């Protein structure tokens, strides 16, 4: 049982975590630190948080666990501001979609309190944002990745692991570097592709003329292009190196497909398509 | 009421059309022409067709309406084989995902019977294939695009339009050229991108290691990569020119995003992402 949880940022993820822990009786009191007055009011009225704070020192006071649930661009500044107010054994974690950049910022700002900072990333979300999008089931049947640091106090890792279990998630531990490489492939690059495609279609023709002929495949493919642009700008910038490496690789593969198409090489196309189908079917229908 | 419908190819689309028309009482008898013995047996046992034929002349005999529902690569050969057996006022239509190539093949093979060939394309489907994937609701709330030819007998167009209405679809008419350009954007290019991404990820790491960290966004984005490789090879080849033009455009846009990322230009990224989100939200949430 967490006596007092402090959530920094009460949007979709922070809000859903608070709701999930409340529902399972794993937390007594949730304090929300949130700059947006509309988010604060909404989070209070929806019962996501018990108290809203605009002063960070006040929000952190007496918290057992602190969760940074702000866009990646806000992490470094928060670490800097919170550092003087962290008490021994006050466990800190985050929900950032990129881990390397968050770890670098935490190491730079938290000093010896790094022992109680456990990096995390719930693999869950929707294309919606804000406290009104939060729901307590968001993490059920989903993975939460923790990338514990060599400096971490084992008890801190255990506290964060237990918190996510109680929110309904499955917890796995991998390194920050591996996390960032894998997520570039299964999340960051797909978002970029979806954003670029939808933007291209909107440029080529009137979207209402073109999209009326789209079927379910396109609706699903493009769903992630409705994601928050600021959040995704931050993610791309924060995971720049792994994402660029994969993007280069993707561009080369796409060029290969274009050349096969240009030369009418149906065998090459079918080979690539069949390999992709096999890989996907193996995972999703196994 | 269609007294006798002949479906050439009893897979997902041909099978679903037969089921939809039977359910609405719009057809008395459905004859299936199908080369795959497993498909034939399945279509018969599921009540999709009333009679299976392996001889094309026999399948066409006495049919009021003939629907070509085979992969695009099989269309030209079928037009050639069926031409001698077409009777006056026997209405022929197809369900091909590309219209220009089908129209060219039909004009080359059907002679004066082109007056009764009405090109069509239902904007519906799933990533599954075969008669066991067919269901009578497939076309409900979906559009069917007809691209009537200047040569068409008005009664033929009306027969095909009525058939699709009775299958539950909304019928729209546009030109073949416009169809192929629009579908390259909302269907063909997205499929290529999904295939290429999944294939790339399977090459970079073990799919089971990588995909376990994928969330709902990736599952939805990549669903179309589970589509039939042969069908999609045919579609890409048949719509080569519009697809290549758009692919070139996409590659240039993706390169722009890569450069913005390389130079840390968050403003450029956010601008593209926000424009895409606005275009998609306008269509899907309007």
Automatic annotation (TrEMBL), chains A, B:
GO terms for biological process: tyrosine biosynthetic process. Pathway: Amino-acid biosynthesis; L-tyrosine biosynthesis; (4-hydroxyphenyl)pyruvate from prephenate (NAD(+) route): step 1/1. It catalyses: prephenate + NAD(+) = 3-(4-hydroxyphenyl)pyruvate + CO2 + NADH. GO terms for molecular function: NAD+ binding; prephenate dehydrogenase (NAD+) activity; prephenate dehydrogenase (NADP+) activity. Residues 3-286 form the Prephenate/arogenate dehydrogenase domain. Gene3D superfamilies: 6-phosphogluconate dehydrogenase C-terminal like domain, NAD(P)-binding Rossmann-like Domain. Keywords: Amino-acid biosynthesis, Aromatic amino acid biosynthesis, NAD, Oxidoreductase, Tyrosine biosynthesis. The keyword Transport does not apply. It comes from the Bacteria. Transmembrane segments: none annotated. Belongs to the prephenate/arogenate dehydrogenase family. This is prephenate dehydrogenase. It comes from Nitrosococcus wardiae. The lineage of its organism: Bacteria, Pseudomonadati, Pseudomonadota, Gammaproteobacteria, Chromatiales.
